[in-house]
Amino acid sequence: MLHTINKSPFESPSMQECARFAAPGDPVLFIENGVYAVQSGNRFASEIEALLKTNPVYVLQPDAEARGISSLTGGVEPVGYDGFVDLVEAHRVNSWL
């Protein structure tokens, strides 16, 4: 199952809830304001690093760029819209709202 997170971790517990319930191997994709979670050096970096031990983590690059995020936590893979579509086609989607 693909988990999408669109809320900033500074204002929503969606990321932590997703990390608790995502099965190992489930991809996690940060979109919209959720991309703030994967910015390197922020207070959520250790949580993202822990998630990366069991799950692939992606960020929608156009959303990160639109928010001025150019440095990602190591291991987070940026994807464009084509990559987003590929992930959605390959997995059932659970959106953490």
For the biggest sheet, the summary is: 5 strands, parallel
Give the helix level as a range of percent: 25-40%
Radius of gyration: 12 Å
CATH class value: Alpha Beta
**Which class do the helix and strand fractions yield?**
alpha/beta
Q: Say what the CATH topology is.
A: Hypothetical Protein Ychn, Chain: A
Task: Tally the helices.
Answer: 4
Give the low-pLDDT segments: none
Number of DSSP strand runs = 5
Strand content: 15-25%
CATH superfamily: DsrEFH-like
Mean pLDDT: 97
Give the tally of structural domains: 1
Strand order of the largest sheet: 4-3-2-1-5
Tell me the series of helices and strands, N- to C-terminal. EHEHEHEHE
Task: Provide a descriptive summary of the structure in words.
Strands 4-3-2-1-5 form a five-stranded parallel beta sheet. The chain has a single domain (2-96), classed as 3-Layer(aba) Sandwich (Hypothetical Protein Ychn, Chain: A), CATH 3.40.1260.10. The chain is globular, with a radius of gyration of 12 Å. With 97 residues, the chain is an alpha/beta fold. It contains four helices and five strands. α2 links the parallel β2 (28-30) and β3.
Summed up, what is this model?
The protein has helices at 14-21, 45-52, 61-66, 81-90, and strands at residues 2-5, 28-30, 57-60, 77-79, 93-96. The chain is an alpha/beta fold.
Annotation keywords:
97 residues, Hypothetical Protein Ychn, Chain: A, 4 helices
